[in-house]
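I'd like us to work through together how a protein chain folds, taking it slowly. To get us started, please write out a protein record for me. Go ahead whenever you are ready, and we will take it from there:
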Amino acid sequence: MSARRSDRGKAAAPEHADVSPVPVPDAVTRPPGSRRSARSEPAEAQGWRASKRSSKLGRQLRREAKTERLKVQMNEGVRTAKNRAIGSLQIAGMVLAGVVALALVFWGLAIGINAGARWLAHKEADKAASPEAQAEAARENLLIIGATGTSSAEFLAVRLDEAGNQALGIAIPSGAFMEVPGQGFERVGDSFAAGPDVSLAAISNYLTVPFDRYVIVDVAVYQDALENQSLRGVMAALQDSNLSDEERESVTAFIESVPGDRTALVPLPVKPIDLGGQTFFEPQRDQVADLLLQWWGVKLGAEDSAVRVIIYNGAGTPGIAGEAAQQLIAAGVRVVDTKNADRFDYDTTLIVVQDGDLTQGDLIKSALGVGEIIDQPAEQDVADVIVIIGEDYVPPATSGS
């Protein structure tokens, strides 16, 4: 048994001996823990040191490259920031220049618009103050004066509405208390003592409706017209008038053609007051507002839109402030008071604008024909313009003499 085993062993050996081994690199065929691997450590250690040196050099190169990149990035960032800052400053400068240019344009436009508006206002004021414009506005208006002698009167402010074929009127009693040019706040009936033109100015000033035509009748005729609500007997009883013959015929024909139911003559709403034993009547402006609006198209408070003027006599000529007041009222100005100035030696008429609107001064100067305009704002709400009449002012009645 052992011999056979031995024989089998011997027989097997030659079979394996004939196979030549193939050399294979240890790194591939042997595991890391074998002896062969241990004998190969010097070569592996030598490669690690080279790798370490290579890695150190690589890191250094990478650090230098990174540093260089950072420098480049920083330089680029600085250049970019600088360029952006310069660009922003340029844009800001352009925007600022544009804003300044626009501001200058708007400023120029504002000055131009303001100058244009003032020029237009001046032209409108001149147009409104022209005799033609005032005559057109007063064309249908007639003041009927019921006289009691030559010292007092009552008044009927009438609109002869041709388009509506109607006659509309407001009766104003003698004792109505209002501004009378040249006399101050007085009974309006007393204005007749200074002449019918003063009465025209007083009524126009109060109603802010222009009247330039009048007829004078006895007070009894006036009272009959109110009682009968008819004007048909008025023109036949004239004592005096400033109507031309043609106008008189035209007014008479129209009055005769108006039906009785198309005539409305109403009393001015007033409140009686006692002043020093005399009875005055205070007009109730708010109650007459509807009549003014419906009949003349004048709204309550319209007098506030008119230029308000106080006139002082600075020349010393009796009654000259009242004459100037009549002129201004005829030009659409509202006179709120007339009185004497602090002295009577003013050579030049002064037109003192109180609210800054110099077109108002232009209107006053155009109406009076003279005057030096002074811009002098004041904290008061009584008048827009103060007029001090000087020796250079010549009333229309004497201007041709």
User: Anything to note?
Assistant: The chain has a mean pLDDT of 79. The two ends are 183 Å apart (CA to CA). Residues 306-401 form a domain with the Alpha-Beta Plaits fold (CATH 3.30.70.2390).
